Amino acid sequence: MKTDIEIAQEASLKPISEIAEELNLSLEDWEPYGHTKAKLSDKLLDKLSDKPNGKIILVTAINPTPAGEGKSTVTVGLGQALNKIGKKTVIALREPSLGPVMGIKGGAAGGGYSQVLPMEDINLHFTGDLHAITSANNALAAMIDNHIHQGNALHIDPRRIEFKRVMDMNDRALRQIVVGLGGPLRGVPREDGFNITVASEIMAILCLSNDLNDLKKRISNIVIGYTYQEEPIYVKDLAVEGALTMLLKDAIKPNLVQTIENTPAIIHGGPFANIAHGCNSILATKTAAKLGDYVVTEAGFGADLGAEKFLDIKTRAGNFEPDAVVIVATVRALKMHGGVPKNNLTEENVDALKAGMENLKKHIETIEGFGLPFVIAINKFPTDTENEVQYIEAWCNEHQYQVALTDVWAKGGEGGIELAEKLVHTIDSDNRNFTRVYELEDSLETKIRKIAHTVYGADDIELSSKAKKQLAFFEEQGWGNLPVCMAKTQYSLSDNPSLLGRPTGFSISIRELRPSIGAGFIVVLTGDVMTMPGLPKQPAALKMDVTEDGKIVGLF
Amino acid sequence: MKTDIEIAQEASLKPISEIAEELNLSLEDWEPYGHTKAKLSDKLLDKLSDKPNGKIILVTAINPTPAGEGKSTVTVGLGQALNKIGKKTVIALREPSLGPVMGIKGGAAGGGYSQVLPMEDINLHFTGDLHAITSANNALAAMIDNHIHQGNALHIDPRRIEFKRVMDMNDRALRQIVVGLGGPLRGVPREDGFNITVASEIMAILCLSNDLNDLKKRISNIVIGYTYQEEPIYVKDLAVEGALTMLLKDAIKPNLVQTIENTPAIIHGGPFANIAHGCNSILATKTAAKLGDYVVTEAGFGADLGAEKFLDIKTRAGNFEPDAVVIVATVRALKMHGGVPKNNLTEENVDALKAGMENLKKHIETIEGFGLPFVIAINKFPTDTENEVQYIEAWCNEHQYQVALTDVWAKGGEGGIELAEKLVHTIDSDNRNFTRVYELEDSLETKIRKIAHTVYGADDIELSSKAKKQLAFFEEQGWGNLPVCMAKTQYSLSDNPSLLGRPTGFSISIRELRPSIGAGFIVVLTGDVMTMPGLPKQPAALKMDVTEDGKIVGLF
What we know:
By secondary structure, chain A is an alpha/beta fold.
C-alpha cells in the first residue's frame, strides 16, 4: 500500500492561480507563495460581504482513540465528494504544528486520496503563520522581561507572569525552566516555561479575529500577569499591541491550497483544542462560505470538546451559524469504546461494537441538543466485517439517524458521495433550530455546569478551592460574561481518560481557571493539561530525509 | 526629511516576475512569495554553470562607529549606479534579523533612495529563512535533550553541550537559564542558554553551503557537545541530519527582490560577523555572478572582520575570487576615529579627520595585502564641510588611492556614478593578485598570529591556558586545517573597543576557541562576545503599528 506522501507526490496539482481563477478571485485578492500555495487578502471577506453565504458543514467525531477516526480525511473527502456531485465546495481546515510532525507520525492534512497538498509544505513551514505567531508571542515575552529588567514601572510580580514563551517544537526540557540567571546583565531570575506555539493565546486570537483591527484589539486585552497587588496587567499597559499586530499582518491572511482532486481548501490557524478552542480561523471559515456554496470544516478532538467550542465560542465570535454536522466514527474506534484493546481490533466483535455505540449516542444527543441536523459517517477500514457494518446500519435505522459509509482514504471524493448526498438532502430539508449550550449572561460557574451536565453527561462538578476563588475573582474583573473553554482529556466524556464509552455517575473536577481575555474566553482546567509535548524515544525525525533533488522522504 | 519607510512606501516596484524575466529566468528557476519577492531555485547555479562569472565587488568599511558608515546603503547605491552606466548588475546582501528590528532602529536593507524593497517584509519575516533556521536549530536541541532523557546511549555530558537553542529576538532573560526542571517527566536538568538565530551554526552552514548535499554534510558535522570522556559528539551520531536538511530545503534557496530603482537584489542568509563569518550565502553571491555582469556584495563590520572572513573563509568554501573592493568611510566616522565625541561631529575638525584617516589607512593596507584593487567611497553626510572633503581627496591623491564621493542615500544610483565608473575602470585594468592571509596547512595558532599581525596590526597574541589546551585538543581532533573565524570587537582594530583609530603596541588576548566543524571553521574568542542581545529601555517596537488597511508605520 502506498503511503500518504507517496500518493501526495504522485498527484497532479493545478497552479494555484488556476484554483484562484476558478474561485473568481482577482489579482488583488490573493498573493502566491510558490506555485501551489497562496495567501488570500484579509480584506476579501469584506469585499464579498454582499454575496450570500454557503452552507457550513461541521465535521466532528466520537472521542478519539488510538485506533484513529480520520476526521480530517473525511473532511477533505467530503469536500471532494460534494464537488463531484456538482456542489461548489470549499474546505476549511486547521494548519498543522511542526513540533508533533518531528515527534510522531501524523499530520493534519488528511490522508490517502483525501489529502490537502502540497502536504510536505503544509506539514512543515507552510506560509509561515506559526512562525509569525511564535515571533509575536516571544516578542511580547521579551518585552515583559525587559520591562522588569528596566525598572518594572508596572510592578509586575515576576512570580505571577501568566504569559509564556512558545516554540513550535516538542521539547519537554523547556516545560519548566528558570530564566534570567547570571547577574544584572541577564535579566531578573524567575520560574518560567515554554508552551508549544499552538497553545499560544495569540494563536487563539488569530483564529477568533474578524479582521486586523479586531486582532489588535484582542491582543491589547491579553492578560500577561498580575502586579504585586494582584491587579491584572494587560498588553495595552505595555503598549506593544501595534508591534505585535505588525508581526501578524500576513499571518492573518487565510491560506489557499487544493486537495488531491483539486478542490479548493483554505487552511488557516490551528489552536490547541483543550486550552483553546481547536478550530481553524473565523476568516478561513467565513471566506470559504463566500467562495463556495458549501463549506466543509472541522473542529478538534470529539464533539464534547471541538464541536462544543466551535458552536459555543467560534460561532459567537464570528457571528455565524452552521447548517449541518457530520459525526465521524469507525468500527475500530467504536470497538475500543466497547472495551476491546488496541491489539485485538482486527477481530470481529459485534458485542463490543454495540457497547461502544454508546459513545457515539452521547455525541449525537449533544448535536441534537444544539438543534442541528447531522449525518453519521462511518469511515471504512479494511478490517471492518460485514456483520459489524450491518450492525451499525441497523442501529442507525432503528434510531432514525442518517448514516453513510465513507471510503475516502482509498477512493477520494468517490468514496464520500453517499455522505455528500445525504448531507445535501438534510440541509435542504432545513429543520434546524440552532441553540447554544449556555447564555453569555450565565455566570462562569453556570456555564461550566451546563457543559458538564449536557455535553459530558456528568452528575456534578467539583470545584477546587483555587477554582472557587478564581471564579469569584474573574467575575469581579468583569470577565464573567465570556464563554468558557474547557480543557478536558479528549479520550473520555469524563475527566478520566481511561473511562471510554459513555461513562455515567461521575463528577468533573475543576482544578483551575486561566483568563484568555484577548482570545475572549476563560479556560477551565479539569486536570493536568500538557501544553508542551515531548519527543518519543524514536522520533519520527530519524526517518526523515531530503534527496539530492529536494524530494522529501520519510515524512509520513 | 522623509524617513526610509516613507521613501520605501512611495516607491514603484515592478512585479517580481518582471525582474525575473529581465534576468532571463524561466518559470522553473524561481517561485513567487507574494508579488514582489521570489525564491530562486537552489539548482539555478548548477544550471548556469557554463555561463561566465560576472565581476564580484566586495564592499567593506572602516571600523564601525556610532556615527554610521552606510555600508549597505553604498552597496545598494553602487549596484544601482552600475546599472545606470549600462553595466548589468545584481546586488547580493545579507537578510536582517528580526530581533534587533524590535530593539533598536536600524536594519540591513540600505536607506533612503538606496534601499532594497519591500523593506517591511525584508525586515520582518521575509520568506521565512530565519524561521526555518530557528526550527532546524531547535529541533536539533530538542533531539539532544530527548536523547539524554531517553537513556543517553551516547553518554552526552549534560555539562558539556555546546549546541544552544536559538530565538530570533533580543531576549536577555534567555542568556543563562536552567532547563529540564520539574522531575522525570520534564527532562534532565542542566544549564543552558539561547542565542539569537543569526548566531546559530546552522545559519553559518546555510551560508557556506554550495548546494543541499553540501548543507546536509555540513550539518552532520556539527559538534553538539562532548561525552563524559570528552570525545566530541556530532549530529551524525544522532542521525538527524536528514530531518534538519528537510527543514531547510526552502531556506537554502536564495531570495530575489529589487531595489528602489528596480535593480535586482539577491538577499540570503545573515550570520553574525563575530562568532561567524558575516556574509550572505555562497549561493546568493555565486548565483548573482551568473545573472549579472557585475555583483556588488558586502561583508559585516569593518575590513578587519567582515572582509577578512569573506576572503579567507567564504571565498575558500565557495571556491571563487573577488575582483575589487570598495572601502566605505564617512567624514563623521573618521572624525570619531580621530577622537571627536559623537555629540560634536557636526563641527568641522580637519585635525581629527587627519588623525582618523589612520584607521582607513590600516584597512587599505589589509586589502592591498590581499592583492585586490580597491576604490575608497566617502559616503556623504549633510554636515560634511568643504574643507573636510578636500582634505580626504588630497590625502587620497597623495597616496595614489582611488576615491569617490557617494551620495546614494539622497540621490540613489545617480549619487554613486563616480564610484561605479572608477570601479569599472579599476577592474578593467585587472592587476589583481589575490593572496589570502594564511594557508589552510598553517596550524591554528599560526593562522591566528597571521591575522592578528597583518590584519589587526597587533604585536603579539596572548593565549589563555584554556585556549592553549584547546589548540592542542583541536589539532588532535583533526580540526587544525580549518580556517579560523575571529570573534573580536568590531569597534577597534584591537580587542579593546575603546581603542579607535589605528592602535599600536597591543596584543590580542585569545580567551577561548569553539569548534564550528559543520560550518567549517574554528571560532576564536578574544573577549566576551554577546550572542543574545537585549532590548533597550524604550524598544523600537513601542512605535510600531499597522494601520487598518495593513500599512506599517514606525518601523524605521
